[in-house]
Every structure is written in C-alpha cells, then in structure tokens.
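Dear colleague,

As promised, here are the two records you asked about, laid out in our usual form so they can be pasted straight into your sheet.

NAME FIELD: protein one
SEQUENCE, THEN STRUCTURE:
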Amino acid sequence: MPPVTTDMLVVFGVVLFALFLFVTELLPIDVTAILVMVLLTVLSPWTDVSVAEGISGFSSTATVAVLAMLILSTGVNRTGVVQILGRKMAAFAGDSQPKQLAATIGIAGPVSGFINNTPVVAILVPVISDLAHTGKTSPSKLLLPLSYASMFGGMLTLIGTSTNLLASSVAERLIGRSFSMFTFTGLGVLVLLAGTAYLMTVGPRLIPERVPAREDYLDEYELQDYVTEVLVREDAAIDGKTVQDAIDESSFDADILQIVRDGETYFEGIASKRIRAGDILAIRTDRETLASLRELDGLDLVGTPPSDDELEADADTQTLVEIVIQSGSSLLGETLTTSSFRQRYDASVLAFRSGGETIRSRLDDVELRVGDTLLVQAPTDSIDRLSTNSDFIVAHESETPNYRTEKIPWAVAIVIAVVGLVGIPWGTLANVTGIDAFAALDFSIVQTALAGVVAMAVTGVIKPGEMYDGVDWSVIFLLAGVIPLGIALEQTGAATFLGALVGLTGEFLPVIGVLWVFYIVTGLVTNVISNNASVVLMIPVAVETAHEVGGNPFAFILAVTFAASTAFMTPVGYQTNLFVYGPGGYKFSDYARVGGPLQLLLSVVTTLGIAFFWGLSP
C-alpha cells in the first residue's frame, strides 16, 4: 500500500464533500460541480489542479460531443419521427399488455443507441402514457420499462449516453485507448436482450399498478375532498370582486378554477373576471379552508365534488393533464407563486407529486424539483404550448402536434452520417483498397456531431434559437465540473491508493471476481449520485486496481462504464428514472424491488461478456 499523503487527504475531502452535496441536493448538481471546480483550483497546492486544468472540462471532447448530441436529438425530436414510430408500435400493440410492453422496449431500446437516451424518454413519456390509457393498461406497467429500456439502448453505441462519451475521454487520457462508435455494441446487444427478457417475464410480476388503468385524475390524486363546487349567494362578500382579488391567498389556501354562469363555463383568463351572485365556482381547497371561506364569504356547497368530465366541460377547449418538470427547467427552485405559474401558462395546478408524495394543499409554498409531476387544468391551446416548452414533459400527446415531418429524411440522413463516418474503419478500408486517402478520413465523434448540428441548421431541421433550448445546460456544467475531479484523483496518487486498497481483494478473489465487485460498487454509487460523476470517480480507481491484480485495464473501464449507465434501483440514479417517477405514480421502493434483481442479473451478464469479448489479461 502506498503511504497516505496530505494531498490525498485533501482530494478525498473534496470528493466526500461533493458526494454529500450530490446525495442531499442542498445545491443543484451543476452548481455543486462548479463549486468542486473552484475548490480544486483554490486548493491547487494540494490537489495539483491548475486553473487551466480546472476549467479543462469545458473544452473536453466529451463535453463538446454531448453538447452537439443533445442538439442533434432536439432536431430529431422536432421532426416527430420518434413519436410517429411510437404511434405505429402503439397501433400494433392494441389492448394486449405484453405487446404494449414489447412495443415500449422495442422503440426505446434501439432508438436510444443513436439518439441520446435522456431526450428519447422525454419524447416517449406522452406516447407511452397515451398507449397505456388507450389500451386500458396502467401506465405504471410501461413507464418504468421505458426508462430501463432506454438505459439498455444507451449502451449500444458510443453516442447512446453522455456517460459513454465521458468514459471514452477519461480512458483515452489514462490508457491511451478510447471507444470507437461500435466498440461495445456486441455486449450492448447482450445487455439489451437480457434486460428485455427480464422486463417481459419477471418485470410485470414486480411492477405494481400505482396508477389506475383508466385516466381519472381526481380519483388517482384523491382530490375528491380538495376540489369543490360552491354557489355564490347574493350576500357573499366576494360578489363583484375579480377572481384574482376574491380570495386572499395569504390567508386561505384556495384557487378558483372555473366559473359556471348561465349554463356557460369560463376558465380561460378568468383572473380579471368579476364574480356575480348565482355563479357556481369550482374551487381547489381543503375542507377546513372551505368551511372558513363559506363562513366569511357566503358560499353554499353544490352537490358532490366535480368529476374529471365536469372539470373538462368542453374537451375541445379545456383539459386536465400531467406535466413533469425537466432537468434544466427555469422553474427549478421556484414555487408556483414566485414563478407566477398560473398567469404565465394560463393553467391552474390542482395537485402534484414530489419525491413519491402527493401534495394537495399549500401548493404555492412548495419548491419545484426535477421530476415533480403537476396535475394542471388548462385550455387546450395552453397545453399545446406547454408541450413545446423545454421546461416540461407533458404526459399526453398534443392533439395538434407541430412536427416538421417534411424534414424527417434530412434528420435521419444526418444522424446516419454522424454515426457512419465515425463507425467506418477508414484505416482498414485504405489497406484493403490501396487508396491511402481513406486513411486521412479518420473522423472523431466531435467532428461529425458538430458538422451534423450545422447540417441540421442549414437544412431547417432545427432553428438556430432551438439549439440553445435543446441543451440541458446542467449536464454540460456537471461534465465540466467533475472532469477536473478525476484529474485530481490521478495526479495526487489518490486513485493509486484506492486501487491498491481494492486490489487487496485479489488475494482471495480471481480477476473476474474483482471485475464483478467494481461493477456492483459503481452501480451502487451511481444510484445515489450522478452517473457522470461516478464514471469520473471510479475509472481512475478501476485502472489502478487492474494494474494491482494483473487485469486488463480496458475491461475494468468497460465494467465501470456499463455499471454507471444502468442505475435501476433509485429514481435519482438516472434522469430517465425521474422523468417517469410522477406519471407512473411510483414509490421509491418500487425502483429497488424491480431494479435490484435486474442490476444483479446484468452484473453477471456484463462481467461474463467483458471477459468473453476482451479478456481479463493485460
């Protein structure tokens, strides 16, 4: 064992501090990453990270490639090609749950190999939710498999997930060997097949039906005691007041959702509408607040609580729908009040799910987080606008989608070119044909992806302004911030120390056993922190451990890469898990129950696959 130095202790302290912030989410993950960057450069006498190295993550090929791939994914999204494929598979599936499950996996898995898997799930959540409700299946049965399948598919190619690109960059720095476009496609196919078999057989028995098969939001969110209709009497204090001024929201937790007057229902832009005696108001509030309002304002209860159909009085103009807060949303850290949600989006929030808990009262005071699912009532045109807003995933497809279907051939051709130019073995082609010029055409993914971005802009697949909206900047800053952490681990000898420590397991485990341990440990770490952060932390240690036990460093890098991209056991382990958390109505424990056995199965499949394809000897 090498001696522990002060430099190592300082770096370990920064790592532990970063892990604490990642797990507790006291700060957004991108802010944590920037803080880590600052700490490493300020403590450079001990971390050996200069200012240039501290900000090197912004110029890393991995960061730039991820940036470009997110823009390309946005361009493909704008054409609607993935949604169209999803609808065709939905038509094939019909009311058969096994066919619906097969369609979900069959679309999400392969597509995620060529489009970044995070936006694939964002695109498919409304498609799969509609498929479930139309086919009379609980969305819970399909949405978790959607997330998992996208993770399987992400391991088919280099560009399937940002983790692969980052791992390739770290591997090139440490051992001088990066991943090509199809380096691990064979193993990725095995993982996809094994995972699919699990989800098709064991999965349906373990995944609970948290959300009813038929869409009835008031029942699903248990809002019967929170949405009430009241009649305004002539002596009511609110008679003549506008909706906006009628209820003092600082004193009463209540919202007026709509007005029924002379047989007509008003809901759009009603904030300035004056209330009259005889109006029937639909109010979101709890029973205790309602009692206080009736006493003060002269309101009479009218019959039973309104149903979904009554709140959607005219389905062509008004609807109830769930929206999911995306990573990078401008609403993160805001409340409904501070964001002026109702005025900004012309939508009323009836309830929302956050962290597995359903919240029905004091909605205005709750800080919004990634993955929170809001049940909103809004005019149809407002829902259409929300569906094109990068702040949200609307868990229902727009009736009038504004896709650029005429650009599908361009988008598909560009993606094929981006992948193909990197995947073609130009050196081998030069040797076979004798044409030396082919050897000069050795493209990197950064080159082809950036060229693809330009091509999409020139051909009109994506508009210039949409490029910025399509990038999840929190991921970019996360990558830029954690890359220097890996450099610090390497340059201070901290990675060597940890590698030697883990290498002690080689005294009683064969090399393949140590490789399996690395897969398991990386998977557990990834389930509580970012997948990209776990790759940066674990790969340097994996390389040193491989040297200690006489193993193949490249095999250990692959084990870490695959484990970091298959975080099934918690909703926070991977962004796609968060995207389906609310719409699926899942509890935290559901991920462990379904994902635990799956993670164990794939640990064996992946470890044996690595040993078969690449061997364990250096």
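NAME FIELD: protein two
SEQUENCE, THEN STRUCTURE:
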Amino acid sequence: MGADFADTSSRSSDDDDDDPEAALNPGGDEDGNVAPLFRLNRLPPGRQDANSALLPGEGSVMSVYMMMHRIRRLVMAAVDDTYTLDELRAPHMDLQVVRPLVDRLYNPEDPAIVYCLVANRVQFLRPRSSEAAHQGMNEARATLCELLATRILRRFYEDHPGRSGLLLLANILVSGFDPCDTAPESVRSRRPQWAIQERGGHERKLTAFELAIISESKLLIKSPACQLVVDAVYKGVVVYTPLSFVDFLPDHYKYHPVSLYEPRRAAILNHRRLIVPQLRNGIELMHFALLLILYMLTVAHYGFGSDMAGVRVYETIFNIFTAGWVLEQFAAVVEHGWEVHVQNLWSFLDVTFVAIYGAYGLVRAVELLFTDDDYYALPVLCTAAPVLLTRVAFTVMPDNIVFIALHAMMRDFTRLTFIAIWCFAGFVVGLLFLARTSGEGSLNAGVTWATITKWLLWIWFGLDGTGIERAADFHLILGPTLIITFAFLGNTLFLTILVAILTNTFSKIISNEAAEIQFRRAVLTFQGVKSDAIFSYPPPFNIAALMILLPLKFLVGPLAFHHINVAAIRAVNAPILLLIGLWERRRVWARRSKSSRLRSWRYFPGLSPHGDIQVVFASEPPPEVVDALEKMDALHEVNAANRMLTVQSPKDVRGAASAVRRRRTSNSSSIRRFEA
C-alpha cells in the first residue's frame, strides 16, 4: 500500500509544529475530518489464480496473504531454538538476525507489514497440542516478530516526520487489513461462514493495534511511534471509524477513514466526538457516578426502614438506568470481543456487578410474580456495594501500578481458587460418604454436606477445631487422616503456592512498570473508540433507541436511517455536544496564543538564564571546528568499535581490544600535536 502525503496547508511550518490538530489541507468533510492524500497500489483482490501469489509488479506491493506467509517462513528459518528478548537484542543476534530481517521486510510503500508481523506473533503464541514440544521455540519466534514490528514501525516513524508521518503511523496501526487478501479460493472457502454485518467492504478486517493488545505485545505498544498514535487517538486528534464484529444498532452508511480532526471546520454539534476516548471516558465516568448515586439512594432508604413506597420509587429509577448501563457494558464486550475487554482494569468488577444485578433481578421477578414480600431481592442488591465502591478507585486511578498489579493477580488468584474449590469438594464428598458408610448412628442422622463444609472452612481459616475433634466419628482411622491431610494441604501447600504465584506476578509487573502503564492506557484508548451507534445514547436512552430505531432500520433506507439516527443523537446529547464543540475550539485558540508567545521567547535567548547554551547549539559549528573534531575522534572508528562488539570468540575479543588500544594511543598523539 503506497502512501504519498501532501501538505497543502496555507499556514507556516511554525504554526504546523505548534498545532498538532491543524489540518493537512483546507478541505475536509462535514465532521471536520481531514483525510490523508494517498493512493493504494496493492494487488487487485480479484486475482486469485496461481500467478497472483507471485512477486508484485511495478508500482504495487505484496498482498497481505503473501506477506504473512513470507514472514512466517523467514522467522521460522531465522529462529530454531529458544531465545529470550534480551538474547535477541544482544549485539551479535541484532547484527546477524534482526537487522537483516528488518532490511529485507521494510518497505516504505507497504503499511501492512506491521499487521502481518503481529498476526504471525498471534499465531506463534497460539497453543497447539501437536507442537507442544516446540512451544518454547514458538514463543521465541513470537518475540522476534514483535521485535521486528517495533523496529519497522520505528523506521516508518523516522522516515516520515511531521503530521503526515502521524497519519501514516495511524494508518499502519488502526487501519483494517483483510488476512485473506488475494488468498486462493481454497483458503477463502474455509473461512467461518457466520453472519457478517454489511460494512461497505470493510467486513472481516482487523487492525494491528487490536492484535497487539490480544497478543500483549507490550514492547511494540510502549514504543514512541505507537505511543504517539495512542496519544493522538486518545485526545481525538486522529479519528477513524473502528471495525467491530457485531453492532447492536449498526449505522454504517458513512465510513470515515483515518484522518486528522479540525474543530474549526466541524459542525458545532458533532456527534462523532462522543467516541473520542478522552471524552468517552469522562462521559462513562458520569454515567457510573449517576449509577452509584441511584444505588446508594435505593439501598439507604431500604436500610433506614423508610416506607416501601419511597423505596420503590428509587428502585424503579435505579432499575431503569441500570438496565441501560448493563446494555452498554454488554455492547462493549461484543464491540471488541471478550479477549480485549478483559484487558480493562475494572472488567472483572463490571462482570461481578452484572452477575449480582442479574441475581437481584431474578429474585425480584419471583417476588413480584408469586409473593408479596420485599425482603429477599434488596438484600441481594446490598452485596454489590463493595464492587461498586472498589470500581470507583479503579476508574479514578487507571494508571496506578497497584491497581494494574491487582488486575493481573486477580486472574491468577481466581484460577488457583477454582482449583482449590475443586479439591475442597473432593474432601467434602469423601467425608460425606465415609459418614454414611462407617459413621456412628448419631452422625449418620445429623451430618450433612453443609455441616462438613462448615467444619472444613473453619479449619482452613483457623477459626474452629470442631472438625478435628469430630474426625473420629467418621472413621477411627480414615476420618482423622482425611481431616489432617486437608489441614496440611489447605493451610500449608495451597497458601505457599498462592503467595509464591502472586509474588512472582507482582514482581514482573513492577519490574516493567512503564510498559504496563502504557499497555493499559492503550487498551483504554482502543476500547474507547466505538462504531456501534448504541454508545451515542446515554442510559437509559439506549434502551429506547434499541427498541425504536432498530425496527425502524428495516423499514427505511440506509440514508434515511442515518439522518434519523444522527438527528436523534444530537437531540439527546445536545448540551454535551455543545460544550465539547466550544471547549475544543477554545483549546485550539488558546494553544495558538501560547505557541506565539513561546516562539517570541525563543527568538530572545538573552531573556533566559540558559540562553548561552541555546546559542551554542542553535547552529552547526564552522568547518574548521568540524575538521579539528574529526582529527580528535574519527567517527568511522567509533562505528568499527560498535561492530567489534559482535565478535564471539575470546581470541577475537582480545585482538579487537588490542586494536582499540593502538588506535587510542595514536589518537592521543594526534591530539597532543594538534594542541601544540
């Protein structure tokens, strides 16, 4: 895919550097988006004969399908052993493996290379029983794919500076690519044939950014080039239409490519600003705050013994709003998939609250249909208080390393707890059968699985020893044996393993703190960009939109439905859209005023206490100074010293060190002669 960007802005280059939200050219659509000017020279997708998979012709680049298999062959040939990231980045491996592959694969006309590399990383990390013996080698190959993607993305970043480079990087990371591009018909026929919503030719496409999140490519995500795009997308400087699998309320009449946003050219009520991650996070925080307030009012009135009529009013408002909030969360899971959703810090808290709210709704429905009591459903709802209040902390401080570590440790803790419960159930069943077969008559009549469970729990937490005292009642020998075995396994082995696993997870996260924070911010940014129109309606208006607009979609044409949907979104969100439009326009004006003052300050270094330093580095040194510096330190010798680091044998190391000492002595003599 070739990209020829043209900057036809009428303003000066200084204004361009100080205003990252400025447009590349005076044109733009009605939403204020200015798309890059580039041409696509990829192989025609209709060519699926045997010759279409050969080398691309002049003016075109290799198809995604061909590039994916080419990368796979090269990586498998380059790595045939287990390597860590540090070993792959060692000087000799970097010179012999990484750099040649980067030089071979890098093509400034093809932004799909990074996507193909990350796609291969996902495939190498996929566990397969047939390749269990080569799992370590596949992990090394996946690491190499991530390292190559990072290096190639950095080359794109270095070769394309400015806003045109930002657009190119955004196209590389958030533009969708079809993995079966120009694939043979035999491959296309094996694709899953589930129902796909029509998206104007953008069906079944994935982005490199999404694959990087799924494969946890933290080295790629924390790179400066990727962080530049993440920051631009998060702030709404770069806008695009995201690709999703299924939408609850699809409105794909318009497709907006990756482009820059110019607030001055956009409508004052720009409904597409509702999917900007920075603004979206603020809106979702207000929704959650309102949910928490309604929850507190409902539970507090019930707990203080108020009349049930007042409780039902608050409960009704809470249920209506919460139903819309749950719909929004469910749509978020469907939007980008469960694998991406669970990377969010507070995803497990949302799932827990939805489960509690579902249990409350089920009990409440039974009360309304079959009984007249109000004593069972609301106590179930009270158990959600720890979840909601904990989520406040996670939402307010999403970049805190402690909460990031808690999110990672919760997965290990849940997995190990499930294993413990499974083993715990085995002891309960064993003791229950032992009581039925060999216990005394009184024990046979009174013991139940609930009693045995209580005794074992008390032993596990060290609260009571009744189970140990009554162990002989199950069986004189086997009863105490099972109880003591359970006590040893639960209090010694399980707790030791749990502490060791959680400590190891926490130490890994702390050792790579910056990458973890940047990865979570990237996940938050990617999840914030939504394509489903249901997210443009705040709860509980999203329920009304789903009930009214979705049937209407089948009665009117795409253009009419688009106009109706946009009008409804602007009407519902008019105050918020007005504030967003005025704030963004004021922010651009304030930035330009500030940049003008900064430019005038730069032109007067004498007003700064560090002005002398700025004068020294403001221009290149004269030729005679450069010649004198070259006589002191020849740059080609520095490059030779860098190449020397790649030698491996001790003999070569000693010989190279001697050569460096000889050159150092010669340089010292030259410096003394120059000074004389």
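A couple of things worth noting about protein two: The first strand starts at residue 33 and ends at 34. The radius of gyration is 32 Å.

Best,
R.
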